[in-house]
Design the sequence.
């Protein structure tokens, strides 16, 4: 275990921030410890389940594998950054409306991935939805409801 | 009905989509230590020595705890719900790979992990046994010197002190005269079916924290059974239950993994020994060594008359319980007695054996052993039907157990809508439509199956409803919301009674210092048991409210009703709940407390025959229909359509019922097609989501739907039954029956991996595949 630490600067949900980190620390660890942001969470610890999803410069990454040091200078968005003025993001609202979760542990990752999907494919087909989200797993298997929520969000985001 | 039967949105929905919902996973306590478990590398061995010096030399390491430290605090460190057989840390020997041997405690999780790796344990290996049939033989290596049944279940007492066996429990059912039945049968069918081991893989990995507080201890734990944890930790410490506080939060999945005691005794001991708060959280791979579903071998022999009636059935099931009993003996008995299926069979003999092996412990996983049995009896049902030239659905209709008829246990079946379930399945599957099975490489098939479960009994739930000075309302109940939407359902019940909007009812998280006793959140029991307790508690509040209102309004209680948080008399006088509180307490003050409890009637089965007039509070019935495509060149199955049908009594929240049935079915699709723990000398070679695949978006059948039959159960709250497990009963045999329909091949073992299916296809074509 090395004691080497460094200071990184990045934009977090629209706000300029700094954090003192150990070089081996992951994004999830730093977001939780330094910023009390708990939406990105570690589950499989191998970048396979998507529970730890964070958007870095607009691209989804696995926060359980992504070293915090690499976030230096980047623009980060977590699920906590989506609501505006206390109003849920349309994707979040669609997940509520369709009841697209059970235990909720994977939900922030699903929401962020859906946001990225809709930015690239504003009107996704069912196949596009399934393939785009296939890197996010839900052990409760709320998959049918999530697909419905994505479709609802696609309708609402671009009205 | 105002709230019941409505798809009320989840109370915690906003918190879940914003990531702010509380999980124990996220809890950090000031000054706490992180624990990392050093685990056994061998399946069965004596511990010669433990050397922690290198770990202790590491900066930031506070302590390394072994069983010697535990014994200074807990002289008898063995725990478990059915048997007191599991030591808090390995005691003299290890019985499975991954068994906790020592815990490194450090100020930082990374240091703790490094320290755990530096602990050196010297072993003297012992012969190990992994297969449940081999382990049950008299010459097998013995895993526990003496059987130690827990006192809680009186019907296990006779096993106390038994030695020289790995069979922890044998449970039997006898009805009629099995020899006579087979003698009278025209045809006899005999098969052996197997299921492998699979795991829950909860996304919030198991986690517990403990902190000493005054002369007591508080345990924060991701647990489905806080009341049990309190009782068992108190017993281990020799403390009164009121010194142990166990609280939980929302669970990131449970499925039976987080039941009884898992990490709680260990974390409590670590906190007491160090005087500091301690957190132990597992990684995903550690979960594979903590609790699994039972693998099972089911031998099933059925006698049938020429007109297609099953008249005799003998089922012998060996349950691979792993190294510690956990709840395995209950699975063995409580599921085992349903092994004849939802059928009306005159002569029945069922034998169930809970067997210790050197695998990680097996416990409850969504269905409590039922899906292993349905796999056998519903697979065999289709083989019988085809051999007898009867349509599979017609064969079932000819044999099913109907209202008023005795089940194999002797309990007369009531409130089970078996014909309605079959009718709905027929309709959803469009069963009479001619079906194109294809002729090329891709073949198609369809199949169906039905399964039965008896809700576990007897268990108790207690609830409290509180009305505060401003007329707002809170519910204290110990049901743990692990994703099934129990909070919302329970609030709907309060809403129904008191006329308060569901969304405005505060549901307090389970906390044994606050919420009353509940046996556990398991076995689809909460809606029925806790639902009844909550309803009684709310009605208790309502009675007190009506009494105050009747006095204030100078009217009779019988003239009052509660609508939209107001009490209204038949003459039109009204009082809000707030005004009623003011009338009673003279200012915004006071609390009205309503309590309710529920425990069903029950009669313990006769140990010799398994007969009981009252074996369960309600029967759960689930059916599935599947259409598949199978690639005859690769053995790959694609489920193109999956229908799940359940008898739910009454759907309190239809959207939640739908999600439970469909989610359970998709989980079972994973167990059917690809999920399987692969072992080598007791080591799980695929202990990660990289190598143990669970269902993702692309595995969900294109056409998946749930349907349910609603005929209110006479004793259920508003007629409801439990539904959390029903969706897992039948998909496996339905899919395998579809394969049988497509190609006529029989696969006896789950999962139906492409390799296994291809081998079966090639075997049937008389050109078997080689071993490589």
Sequence:
């Amino acid at each position: 275990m090395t004691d080497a630490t460094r200071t990184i600067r990045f934009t977090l949900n629209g706000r300029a921030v700094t954090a003192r980190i150990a070089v081996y620390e992951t994004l999830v660890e730093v977001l939780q410890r330094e910023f009390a942001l708990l939406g990105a969470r570690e589950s499989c610890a191998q970048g396979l389940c998507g529970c730890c999803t964070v958007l870095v410069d607009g691209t989804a990454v696995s926060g359980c594998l992504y070293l915090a040091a690499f976030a230096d200078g980047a623009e980060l968005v977590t699920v906590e950054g989506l609501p505006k003025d206390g109003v849920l993001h349309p994707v979040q609202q669609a997940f509520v409306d369709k009841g697209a979760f059970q235990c909720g542990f994977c939900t922030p990752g699903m929401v962020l991935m859906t946001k990225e999907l809709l930015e690239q494919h504003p009107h996704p087909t069912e196949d596009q939805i399934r393939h785009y989200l296939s890197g996010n797993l839900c052990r409760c298997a709320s998959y049918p409801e999530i697909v419905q929520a994505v479709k609802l969000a696609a309708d609402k985001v671009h009205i | 009905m105002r709230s019941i039967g409505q798809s009320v949105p989840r109370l915690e929905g906003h918190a879940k989509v914003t990531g702010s919902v509380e999980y124990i996973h996220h809890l950090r306590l000031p000054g706490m230590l992180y624990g990392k478990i050093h685990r056994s590398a061998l399946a069965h061995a004596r511990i010669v020595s433990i050397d922690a010096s290198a770990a202790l030399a590491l900066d930031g390491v506070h302590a390394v705890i072994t069983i010697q430290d535990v014994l200074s605090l807990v002289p008898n460190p063995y725990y478990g719900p059915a048997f007191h057989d599991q030591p808090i840390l390995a005691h003299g020997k290890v019985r499975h790979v991954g068994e906790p041997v020592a815990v490194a405690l450090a100020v930082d999780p990374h240091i703790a992990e490094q320290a755990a790796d530096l602990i050196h344990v010297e072993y003297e290996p012992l012969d190990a046994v992994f297969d449940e049939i081999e382990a049950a033989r008299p010459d097998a290596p013995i895993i526990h010197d003496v059987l130690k049944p827990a006192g809680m279940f009186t019907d296990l007492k006779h096993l106390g002190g038994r030695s020289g066996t790995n069979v922890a429990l044998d449970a039997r059912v006898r009805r009629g005269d099995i020899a006579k039945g087979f003698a009278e049968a025209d045809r006899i069918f005999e098969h052996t079916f197997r299921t492998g081991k699979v795991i829950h893989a909860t996304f919030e990995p198991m986690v517990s924290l403990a902190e000493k507080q005054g002369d007591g201890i508080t345990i924060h734990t991701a647990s489905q059974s806080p009341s049990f944890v309190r009782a068992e930790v108190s017993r281990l410490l020799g403390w009164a239950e009121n010194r142990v506080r166990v609280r939980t939060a929302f669970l990131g999945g449970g499925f039976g993994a987080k039941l009884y005691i898992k990490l709680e005794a260990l974390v409590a001991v670590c906190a007491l020994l160090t005087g500091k708060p301690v957190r132990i959280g597992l990684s995903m791979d550690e979960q594979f060594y903590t609790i699994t579903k039972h693998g099972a071998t089911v031998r099933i022999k059925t006698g049938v008359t020429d007109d297609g009636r099953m008249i005799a059935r003998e089922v012998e099931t060996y349950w691979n319980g792993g190294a510690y009993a956990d709840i395995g003996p209950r699975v063995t008995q409580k599921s085992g007695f349903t092994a004849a299926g939802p059928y009306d069979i005159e002569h029945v003999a069922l034998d169930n054996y809970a067997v210790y092996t050197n695998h990680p412990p097996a416990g409850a996983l969504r269905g409590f052993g039922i899906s292993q049995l349905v796999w056998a009896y519903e697979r065999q049902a289709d083989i019988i039907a085809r051999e007898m030239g009867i349509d599979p659905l017609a064969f079932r209709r000819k044999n099913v157990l109907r209202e008023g008829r005795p089940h194999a246990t002797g309990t007369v079946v009531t409130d089970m809508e078996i014909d309605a379930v079959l009718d709905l399945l027929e309709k959803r599957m469009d069963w009479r439509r001619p079906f194109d099975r294809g002729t090329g490489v891709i073949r198609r098939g369809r199949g169906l199956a039905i399964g039965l479960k008896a809700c576990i009994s007897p268990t108790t739930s207690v609830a409290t409803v509180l009305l505060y000075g401003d007329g707002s309302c809170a519910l204290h109940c110990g049901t743990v919301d692990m994703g099934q939407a129990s909070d919302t359902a329970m609030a709907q019940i309060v809403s129904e009674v008191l006329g308060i909007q569901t969304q405005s009812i505060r549901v307090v998280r389970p906390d044994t210092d606050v919420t009353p006793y509940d046996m556990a959140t398991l076995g689809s029991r909460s809606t029925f048991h806790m639902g009844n307790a909550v309803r009684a508690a709310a009605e208790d509040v309502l009675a007190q409210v009506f009494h105050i209102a009747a006095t204030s309004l100078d009217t009779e209680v019988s003239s009052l009703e509660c609508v939209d948080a107001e009490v209204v008399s038949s003459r039109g006088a009204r009082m809000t709940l707030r005004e009623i509180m003011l009338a009673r307490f003279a200012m915004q003050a006071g609390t009205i407390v309503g309590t309710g409890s529920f425990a069903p009637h029950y009669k313990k089965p006769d140990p010799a025959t398994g007969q009981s007039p009252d074996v369960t509070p309600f029967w759960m019935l689930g059916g599935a229909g599947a259409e598949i495509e199978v690639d005859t060149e690769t053995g790959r199955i694609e489920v193109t359509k999956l229908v799940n049908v359940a008898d739910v009594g009454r759907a309190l929240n239809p959207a939640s019922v739908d999600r439970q049935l469909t989610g359970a079915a998709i989980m079972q699709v994973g167990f059917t097609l690809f999920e399987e723990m692969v072992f080598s000398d007791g080591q799980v070679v695929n202990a990660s989501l990289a190598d143990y695949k669970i269902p993702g978006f692309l595995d969900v059948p294109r056409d998946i739907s749930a349907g349910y039959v609603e005929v209110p159960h006479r004793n259920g709250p508003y007629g409801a039954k439990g539904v959390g497990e029903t969706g897992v009963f039948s998909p496996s045999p339905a899919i395998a029956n579809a394969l049988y329909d497509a190609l006529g091949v029989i696969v006896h073992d789950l999962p139906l991996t492409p390799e296994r299916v291809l081998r079966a296809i090639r075997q049937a074509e008389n050109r078997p595949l080689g071993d490589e």
